[in-house]
Amino acid sequence: MSTTDAAVDVTARAGDLLGVSRLTNATLTGWLHGLPGVDQVGCEARAASLGTRSIKTTAKQWAIDAAISMIDLTTLEGADTPGKVRSLAAKALVPDPSDPATPRPAAVCVYGDMAAIARQALGDSGIHVAAVATAFPSGRASRRVKLADTTDAVAAGADEIDMVIDRGAFLSGRYLEVFEEIAEVKQACGDAHLKVIMETGELVTYDNVRRASWLSMLAGADFIKTSTGKIQPAATLPVTLIMLEAVRDWRELTAAIVGVKPAGGIRTSKDALKYLVTVNEVAGEEWLTPERFRFGASSLLNDLLLQRQKLRTGAYSGADYVTID
Amino acid sequence: MPIFEYAPAPESRAIVDIQPSYGLFVGGEWIEGRGAAFKTTNPATEEVLADVAEASVADVDAAVRAARTAYTRVWSRMSGADRGKYLFRIARIIQERARELAVLESLDNGKPIKESRDVDVPLAAAHFFYHAGWADKLEYASLGPKPRPIGVVGQVIPWNFPLLMLAWKIAPALACGNTVVLKPAETTPLTALLFAEICQQAELPAGVVNIVTGAGATGQAIVEHPGVDKIAFTGSTEVGKSIARSIAGTRKRATLELGGKAANIVFDDAPLDQAVEGIVNGIFFNQGHVCCAGSRLLVQESIAEEVDRRLKRRLETLRVGDPLDKNTDVGAINSRAQLDRIAELTAAGEAEGAVRWDTGCELPSHGFWFRPTVFTGVSQTHRIAQEEIFGPVLSVLTFRTPQEAVAKANNTPYGLSAGIWTEKGSRILWMADQLRAGVVWANTFNRFDPTSPFGGYKESGYGREGGRHGLEAYVTTGDPR
């Protein structure tokens, strides 16, 4: 199937799902605003209650390894250099030199101009190269530039693209524009997986998060992702809960499985475990795999490694016993 | 086997020190009961936890006399500010001993530790803190001119929230200057007995709080004792009625908080995921042993199938089992008698033609257990839509219009609570106005706070507990006659 066909397919599928022959902003608005609302208090209470699950011993062991394998090990700084990216790739290849059985993270996530460096460093290890694109993090550039940004990263060896949506268009109700942009970026991705960053901290309400999740899935997202990490608040448990409900309900509607990636602000193993519990109890265990759930994080990996060493040896070591990158 | 299997995470019971036998707490001291001792058991294992004294009529008399002495000589004369200090002290000790109280409550009652830890005990402390604040401000509570204490209050509480109901009863009574004789339920006396120890630790003057244990006969002795000025009761409507009968014609006052058959009403514009949580919390919180439980789900016909599907999917994730496991969502049924009653009513539901569904989860081999159960196709005329089951059993009915929802919700002899789920604010207000229920929750359920009055309409009882309104039951106003 050619990439052009894929874009046509997304639009045709959207028309089918909405029951219209031509997709317009009005039909999209009606559909998105017809989704059940989210009660903020109830949503946050549910997230808090999932956060009280007590994950111990064998469950903790499993969860720590699972969390490590779901990390998109990330560096997204203006100061990034090829050397920095190579050392991050080396860390991904050997997360804990003291224990070769330690699982590897799912991907290394970098800016587009570093994709080739990351690809070269990771070789055929199976660790994916994710590149942020579409004028990350603001998304304020022309469509032409965003598409070029995407094709450039893919050509450099990225097999996962993390795009940002146009929050301005979304917040002013230009849903069709957001839809078309995602669909076109998806097309530009070719075989690369597309993660759609909604920047939930700028969408503010849970209703918006739910609508943006459905809009992204409708437009062909392989993953929906909370945040760039450049805006506060970044990932929160209630926002991730809403997104997990969205992918669960999307599968019920279309039989297709879309992944979820909370990113930014998840730094401790304890937090990561709360997310895994939420995945398990809201979306279901089919999502408990790096194919369908990722953490966008950098410092989280080392905390997971410390906890892993503690479980293995029975004693806490300390920050000097894990490598900084 | 699940991919992510939660390993057992039991809360340690080492923190509680259960004595082999308990006496009665009368006049600040432990005395032996004159009745035959009875046993209290752990409903999750049927293990005997302790022997508990049964208070005879003479024991109750001793307790009432101790309360009277403490009332006349000490407590009614003490300034509100000083009474408040004792209540603050009790509240802080409850917080300090929170884990001990939570573990003991879960052992004796069967409720999940996460509920006793996160709901019962913190709320009990909150009630003491709240009422401690009122103790020196009663004149400014709009209760009427010159509010004064009533005297000796007899309090009889149920087994579903043993410590919390104790707090609801004792905190306002003491804040207003009354002394109390309290009887915990016969299946759950242990946290009340630990509370007696807390009163000693707080150096509460002897006789201000007296705890007598026993069953119905002991309760009756309290109710009928001529030295008791007021009765406060929480429990079944049947017992409530007999209390009302036995105090008729006496000078005794009463507040009764009785049964319920609450409607939890879900409109088609509801926030569905949160509504499902609210339905689950409404009926499966505390195994459904909640007088204000949302035991009747009224769901708008246009979304009935979707709600049914989402609800059952959610119920599959409930973890039923060891109450002390921190991941347990639904614990043990409190007693064999209650289990039998639940079984009897659910059998009647099936016999009357409602469709029964349960989660099919595995249950422990010992103890008293009941799977989370949902009945669909329920009609108003079915017993499971009319009678209080007091267990983890939900009856689902449908409606088409808001008027029909109100008519069905109100079509019950009870009137304790109701829930409304809709995104439309104006409908919430209209519904709340129409529903004959003491508590109406909007887009939430089973939320309690000491500042909010709680109580019923119709056969759910009279009087309010909590908030400024709750104080009214514990004071008399105007010039002394």
UniProtKB/TrEMBL annotation, chain A:
<comment type="pathway">
    <text>Carbohydrate degradation; 2-deoxy-D-ribose 1-phosphate degradation; D-glyceraldehyde 3-phosphate and acetaldehyde from 2-deoxy-alpha-D-ribose 1-phosphate: step 2/2.</text>
</comment>
<dbReference type="InterPro" id="IPR013785">
    <property type="entry name" value="Aldolase_TIM"/>
</dbReference>
<dbReference type="InterPro" id="IPR002915">
    <property type="entry name" value="DeoC/FbaB/LacD_aldolase"/>
</dbReference>
<dbReference type="InterPro" id="IPR011343">
    <property type="entry name" value="DeoC"/>
</dbReference>
<keyword id="KW-0456">Lyase</keyword>
<keyword id="KW-0704">Schiff base</keyword>
<dbReference type="GO" id="GO:0005737">
    <property type="term" value="C:cytoplasm"/>
</dbReference>
<dbReference type="GO" id="GO:0004139">
    <property type="term" value="F:deoxyribose-phosphate aldolase activity"/>
</dbReference>
<protein>
    <recommendedName>
        <fullName>Deoxyribose-phosphate aldolase</fullName>
        <ecNumber>4.1.2.4</ecNumber>
    </recommendedName>
</protein>
<dbReference type="GO" id="GO:0016052">
    <property type="term" value="P:carbohydrate catabolic process"/>
</dbReference>
<dbReference type="GO" id="GO:0009264">
    <property type="term" value="P:deoxyribonucleotide catabolic process"/>
</dbReference>
<dbReference type="Pfam" id="PF01791">
    <property type="entry name" value="DeoC"/>
</dbReference>
<comment type="similarity">
    <text>Belongs to the DeoC/FbaB aldolase family. DeoC type 2 subfamily.</text>
</comment>
Automatic annotation (TrEMBL), chain B:
<dbReference type="InterPro" id="IPR016163">
    <property type="entry name" value="Ald_DH_C"/>
</dbReference>
<dbReference type="Pfam" id="PF00171">
    <property type="entry name" value="Aldedh"/>
</dbReference>
<keyword id="KW-0560">Oxidoreductase</keyword>
<dbReference type="InterPro" id="IPR016161">
    <property type="entry name" value="Ald_DH/histidinol_DH"/>
</dbReference>
<comment type="similarity">
    <text>Belongs to the aldehyde dehydrogenase family.</text>
</comment>
<dbReference type="InterPro" id="IPR016162">
    <property type="entry name" value="Ald_DH_N"/>
</dbReference>
<protein>
    <submittedName>
        <fullName>Putative aldehyde dehydrogenase</fullName>
        <ecNumber>1.2.1.3</ecNumber>
    </submittedName>
</protein>
<feature type="active site">
    <location>
        <position position="257"/>
    </location>
</feature>
<dbReference type="InterPro" id="IPR015590">
    <property type="entry name" value="Aldehyde_DH_dom"/>
</dbReference>
<feature type="domain" description="Aldehyde dehydrogenase">
    <location>
        <begin position="30"/>
        <end position="476"/>
    </location>
</feature>
<dbReference type="InterPro" id="IPR029510">
    <property type="entry name" value="Ald_DH_CS_GLU"/>
</dbReference>
<dbReference type="GO" id="GO:0004029">
    <property type="term" value="F:aldehyde dehydrogenase (NAD+) activity"/>
</dbReference>
